[in-house]
Amino acid sequence: MVCKKMSKSLNNYIGIADAPDDMFGKVMRISDELMWRYYELLSFESIADIQQWKLNCQQGENPRAYKVKLAQELITRFHDVNSANKALENFEARFQRGEMPSEIEQIELRIINQSYGIASLLKDAGLNSKYI
Asked: Tens digits of per-residue pLDDT, 79-119?
């Protein structure tokens, strides 16, 4: 197993100021193998418990439950328990039930000529500003 460091440049970090939904999503994107390292570094759970959970997964238990547990622990620590529960609810609504988020920013763009390239659309909508 190759473990990469947790870093912003690798886009695998979890910022303490991240919004609860963002924190939840970042934890859920961690690979099953790398999740255990995040547990060791970030969780207040005992190493014995973490090792037992890892063994449970090696014996066939779904690691998703442990990712959810880690996400909720971190969100509770840096936000609050209500935010952690809401982030779980939002995640399940979107990714298990296919619902759209209730709050989606809308952007209105004016098309001046007949052709409007995708790069221009992304730039004008402000969706690629972190790459410029």
From this structure: 999 999 999 998 888 766 666 666 667 777 777 777 777 77
Domains of the chain: 20-103 (1.10.240.10)
Nearest to 65 by CA among 27, 94, 34: 27
Measured CA distances, 51 to 4, 36, 70 (Å): 20, 8, 14
pTM beyond 0.90, yes or no: no
DSSP state letter for 43: -
Residues in the chain: 132
109: exposed, middle or buried (C-beta count within 10 Å: 0-12, 13-18, 19+)?
exposed
Question: Using an 8 Å Cβ cutoff, are 84 and 72 in contact?
Answer: yes
- 8 vs 12, 18, 23, 26, 111, CA distance in Å? 6, 12, 13, 12, 35
